[in-house]
Amino acid sequence: MCKCFKCEMLMTDEPIKVIDFKANSPFADDIYHFEYGFKCIYNGSESLAVEKLPEKGCRCTGGE
Question: In this structure, which of 10, 20, 23, 54 has its CB flanked by the most CB atoms within 10 Å?
């Protein structure tokens, strides 16, 4: 169970970059848009789904 919604380290409505088309040339730009998601101030990770935030370490669950 994800405890992020009860954590003071959670930021909601954060603009998350979503890549729609990856450029196939190093000189071209990716095509992307932004969607609102979640960011953990503790580990710096961000995600569109709040359940995925603890995967990169969480002080509440003790994850590494």
Answer: 54
